[in-house]
Amino acid sequence: MIEDFETRAARYVMEWGEWIEKLRLLAELEIDIKNLDIYIKKLLDLQNPDGGFPKKWIKGNNSSIIETATALELLSKLKIKNENTQKAIEYLLRKQLINGSWREEEYIKGKTPRTNLLTAKVTRALLAYNIKGEKIRKAIEFLVRGQRDDGFWLTSLNETAEIDLEATNEAALTLLELEDEYLNKIAKLGIDAIWKWFMEKITEEWSEPPKEALIITEALIRAGFGEAEAVRRVLQSYVKTERWRFGDKRSISTKEAIKVLEELLLANAIDKEKIRREIERLIFIKSKLKELIENYENDVRNYFLIRFEEIGIKPKDPQEKILLGCFLYSMMDQFFWTSEDFDPQVEYRGIVGLIGGVHEISKYKEFENVREAFFRSRALRGIARRRKIEVARGISLFAEFLLKYGPFKSFNDFAIKLRAYILFEVAPKISGWDTSYNLGKLLRLFAKAENSTDKLMESVILSLECLPAVGTKIATLFPYHAFWIFEIWPEVKKYVKCPIDWNIVKPYGMLELSCMTLKELRRDPKRASSAIYKLAEELFPNDPAKISFLWIVGHEWCTKPYRCYGLAGKKCWIFEICTRGRGYERKKNLE
Amino acid sequence: MRERKIWNEYLTKFTARLEGGYLENLKEVIRRKERIVIKHHTMRLKKAGIIKISKKTLIDTFTYSIFDLYYWKLHKKGTTPAEELKRFKKTINTLDKYLDEDLIYYTLKDECKHIGKLTRKNIEKIISTLRYMAESIERVHKRSLIEFSKILRNHVMFNVSKELPESIFSRKARYFGLLTSNIVDDKSSALEAIRLSIACLPEGHPYTADLFLYLTSKILRIWNGTIKSQLHAPIDSGISEVILSLGLTDKKLKNLIYLSLHYEVFQTISQTLFPEDPSKMIVLRAVAERWCYDRDWKLCKNCWLNENCPKEY
């Protein structure tokens, strides 16, 4: 089915956008505030004690004026007025300079401070909350003083400053909001200047609109130029010329996408209802998915625990046994491509049968033992000799680590020892460009003595990637098995990520949460990994690996055509919200 | 695999000439002219004021190696790295002064005529590179290559790695990894550790590392014992042009960062021609300076290699 621009654009922003960008879009569409709880809570949680919002929206960063003004403007659109907004207003008023302007305290090297733009933005945010008085008067005076004879505003009041189109746009919009004849006249002068510049730039020859066009269209539309041919052409160029390839997140940044959608909505150039419908569908699917995941939480863990129990690893087993068992099992998973009916459980049992139980770690330490077992294993017959040797080396090195340094008191103990073991004992034995890169990054973490849990988790993943035959997938799979399923150290669950493969990507595509088609996803499932991680962070910020629920759905239903429809399909955990489930036209699953 | 690629894609002409015995004369000329090049380098170091062997000699030679990286730029302005170093050394005349970044900045800006006109980014890189090297040299107590390389390696691994800005580190992470894997236990691994450590520094170019090792071991003879066969020949754009003219490579070598394919192609040529001392290929740099590179027209008539050069430029 060919979807229209509105639907795909909305989905694109909701899939790849940052949470603040999503909130901007949702506020613009006037979506029911109950559905925005997650985003609003996240925004309010960020506020610093001084009332400002942190730079780059990173908790703990110093307060920034531009972020605070943006947050205030967003909250005003959502009609939120509470203690938080009051504190933000006070922060902004406190930061005003004597001349009426605002300026960021932290000077960014090599960048000219854009005083006019900042002042216009802050004034607009304050006006949205109906703030009046001396301070606003001074700010407006500053803006009026800053306008050049030709109507433009510059980056700042410096003599060397350049024309700032964005500041002109913002300043004109701010002055337009004030019902004052004189100020409206000044705003009109600014808009005329923008219009003149705009018309000069847009000639018959241009193939695509100038980059700055998008910055100034808001002022033009609000001043009544929305119907003008030139503005219409700029806006249409985004809709019609397929400027965005929604299947590829590199085609346009979500920041630009949001801006375009805002302008298009303002000019009534696209169907607001269609976007709203799509957004509401996405919000519904996400909330339903969250509910399902919470309902099936225990089933998900049990599903994996049973699989591990079948191969002889139980949650009550000694720590080292679980660690080695999970590592060996994860290593076996990399041979899934050898045959269609490859089952890591069967192969695991085969290898353990040849070497001995995983509780006998010393047997796995001997490289020759492991190597021999891999060469004698029937299922792995088609695999290259070198690959088998590398896998055997990886396993024997990990076993050596467990034998030498185990048992571990805590996750920190495990991670610190593994990092040191890889750097000082394994490093001289390994080679390769990618390994060296990971080793370098690991060294930096060691030298900086990074011992916070998130950094230590990063160290564990890098350390594992330094071992022979361990790639990104296994380095994610092992912590998932050992720390999330077996919960050896429950405190690190927050930092564990779910492994991404076709099993998890297919149900994600089936729920139509992605802009990419199933075909595109099938070609390279990893393309969806960052979108899936974003979704997991959004739904479960304290335990993102819960999204592995989708992995089981994919493994049990989606990737097995004979189970995805008919009676068997009804048993699927996501039957109710899936495109193939209730309420949707049934189609045979041929993918 | 990589070696096969080197031989099949870059060295087909070289192989043919080598097997046909056409390179014997060239080897002979390079061998003969090396003495002149060594003299020439000794004179340059003397001109820059590097005479006595001390800790400061090491850092001065290293600075000279960095300045020499900009030889072609300086040459256009009518000056040389040795002259620039001489001006630089008027103020920065002790090891301690290398640790003062502000002092180095103002010396480069005020004293050095042309190096000070590099971009601010480049100057900052040079300054921090010199400081890191000076910090390592300060800890050296013996005239031993192995000890020097161990100290430098440790300093780079545990101090430089945490201080480098993220943007620089992400480009150098591989070298840090290789340095971690390279344990220093003999002269060969010590040389590799020095090369890798220099590659890890902000302005760490393989040319700087190779020239520094060449000057300290062959010209100044700072290190005890012989390490000639393990030295790498320095390569820059000038040498790259000369070897293309000489028909030693099929394509021009452009990517000269450490351990890149093009870098390894050049090292393969050097080691095949002079297994006992690959650094002899530095003669080609002298050829590039005098006759071959960065000129409006090539002065082939007077060139040392005129009779052996097929002029494939």
How would you describe this structure to a colleague?
The complex is a heterodimer of chains A (591) and B (313). Chain A is an all-alpha fold and 591 residues long. Chain A contains 29 helices and 2 strands. Chain A has a two-stranded antiparallel sheet with strand order 1-2. In chain A, a hairpin with an 8-residue loop joins strand 1 (53-54) and strand 2 (63-64). In chain A, helix 8 runs antiparallel to helix 9. Chain A is elongated and about 90 Å long. Chain B is mainly α. Chain B has a domain at 2-37 and 232-308. Chain B is 63% helix and 0% strand. Chain B has 15 helices and no strands. Chain B has helices at 2-10, 12-19, 24-47, 55-68, 71-76, 81-91, 101-110, 120-138, 145-163, 166-181, 187-200, 206-219, 237-245, 261-273, 283-292. The radius of gyration of chain B is 19 Å and the shape is globular. Chain B starts with a helix and ends in a 21-residue tail after the last helix. The relative contact order of chain B is 0.13. The model of chain B has no long low-confidence stretch (mean pLDDT 89). The A-B interface holds A 423, 427-428, 430-431, 433, 435-444, 447-448 and B 157-159, 161-162, 169, 172-178, 180-183.
Summarize this structure briefly.
The complex is a heterodimer of chains A (591) and B (313). Chain A has 591 residues and is an all-alpha fold.
Distance between the termini of chain A: 15 Å
**Overall residue-averaged pLDDT value of chain B:** 89
Oligomeric description of these chains: heterodimer
Helix content of chain A: 55-70%
Helices and strands in order:
The complex is a heterodimer of chains A (591) and B (313).
Chain A: H1 5-16, H2 19-28, H3 37-46, E1 53-54, E2 63-64, H4 65-77, H5 83-94, H6 115-128, H7 134-146, H8 165-177, H9 181-201, H10 213-225, H11 229-240, H12 254-266, H13 272-295, H14 297-310, H15 319-332, H16 344-355, H17 361-365, H18 367-376, H19 385-405, H20 411-426, H21 433-447, H22 453-466, H23 472-485, H24 502-510, H25 518-523, H26 529-539, H27 549-558, H28 561-564, H29 566-570
Helix pairs in contact in A: 1-12, 1-13, 2-12, 4-5, 4-6, 6-7, 6-8, 8-9, 8-10, 9-10, 10-12, 15-16, 15-19, 15-23, 16-18, 18-19, 20-21, 20-22, 21-22, 22-23, 24-27
Chain B: H1 2-10, H2 12-19, H3 24-47, H4 55-68, H5 71-76, H6 81-91, H7 101-110, H8 120-138, H9 145-163, H10 166-181, H11 187-200, H12 206-219, H13 237-245, H14 261-273, H15 283-292
